[in-house]
Design brief:
The protein is about 10% helix and about 40% strand. It is mostly beta strands and about 290 residues long. The chain has 2 domains: about 1-205, Acetamidase/Formamidase-like domains (Jelly Rolls); about 220-290, Acetamidase/Formamidase-like domains (Endonuclease I-creI, Roll), CATH 3.10.28. It has a 9-stranded mixed sheet. Strands 2, 4, 6, 13, 15, 16, 18 and 19 form an 8-stranded mixed sheet that branches. β11 and β12 (about 120-125) form a beta hairpin. About 45% of the residues are buried. It binds calcium ion (2 copies).
Length: about 290
């Protein structure tokens, strides 16, 4: 299996030369730096010393053969190995309670088989990828921003065992990923998770069908994602995508799919801290299957 390492981007951009080319169906390992690009190594390192131009690198771009505009890129997350230590902190001007918590703080967290060291106690490791996406349709988008192309989605469901689906806007899709988290709660409220470098194993594939926003297929559920300037807008985009998904994949009309969403899907906050907010809507596969065939 090939290891993809040493090339990363700070923007998802159709004009960046791909670093690697992979075949549909191929499994590769991607080495991803943490969101500070390894600049913070101890509690003594301060945010003032941070080179902010090096924040949120994403390993890529990965050119996927046969991916054409209008297709769907499938990315199955096989495994995420997190590297110790992780870094957390409070960044002034960032986070939902930024007016109240405005003192900069950096903390380094050792991670071992027993979990993440957090103020003398252990928290469980639930690895996920914060930033993953393809080259957006139009202008370049910073890796710190989410959108219809994916990007900084900060959605805890982006974890081993799921398959992500992205709209392909450009030939080769140009996939990039990074911003690993050893643990993140819904909301990512202070703006920083347990930030880690990872070795992420993923399988890519291409489907000849068109979607408008990122989707996640888990073992027992489907999830649609929406990102917008505020949370309500993000919820609306994710809900619209779920109504489309249900009416395209079941015998339900759009009207009935909308009604079903009101009673049998869950709307959750992914993150409330990035330049655009991200929400998601999930439905159990057992519900979808009731209305198929
Ligand atoms: Ca992030
Ligand atoms: Ca992060």
């Amino acid at each position: 299996m090939r290891t993809l390492s040493g090339s990363f981007v700070y923007e998802m951009d159709k004009n960046v030369e791909p670093a690697w080319e992979v075949e549909p169906g191929e499994t590769v390992k991607a080495e991803t730096p943490d969101c500070f690009n390894g600049q913070i190594k101890s509690d003594e390192d301060t945010l003032e010393d941070l080179d902010m131009t090096q924040v949120n690198p994403a390993t890529g771009p990965i050119y996927v053969k046969d991916a054409e505009p209008g297709d769907t890129l499938l990315v199955t997350i096989e495994e995420i190995k997190v590297k110790s230590p992780g870094v957390q902190g409070i960044v002034p001007g960032f986070g939902l309670l930024q007016d109240e918590f405005d003192e900069p703080l950096v903390t380094v967290h050792e991670i071992d088989e027993e979990g993440i060291e957090f103020e003398g106690k252990k928290l469980p490791v639930h690895p996920m990828i914060g930033t993953i996406g393809v080259a957006p349709e139009g202008k370049p988008v910073l890796c710190s921003t989410p959108g219809a192309h994916g990007g900084n989605l900060d959605t805890p469901d982006v974890r081993p065992g799921v398959t992500l689906k992205f709209p392909v806007f450009h030939e080769g899709a140009l996939l990039s990923l990074g911003d690993g988290h050893a643990l993140q709660g819904d909301g990512e409220v202070c703006g920083v998770s347990i930030e880690v470098a990872t070795t992420t194993t993923l399988t890519v594939d291409v489907e000849k069908e068109t979607i408008s926003t990122p989707l996640i297929e888990g073992e027992d559920e489907f999830i649609t994602l929406g990102s917008d300037e505020d949370l309500e807008g993000a919820c609306r985009i994710a809900l619209r995508a779920m109504v489309d998904y249900l009416s395209n994949n079941t015998t339900l009309s759009p009207q009935d799919a909308y009604k079903l969403c009101s009673v049998a899907t869950d709307m959750k906050v992914s993150q409330v801290v990035n330049p655009l907010r991200t929400a998601r809507v999930s439905v159990k596969k057992e519900i979808v299957e009731k209305f198929q065939g």
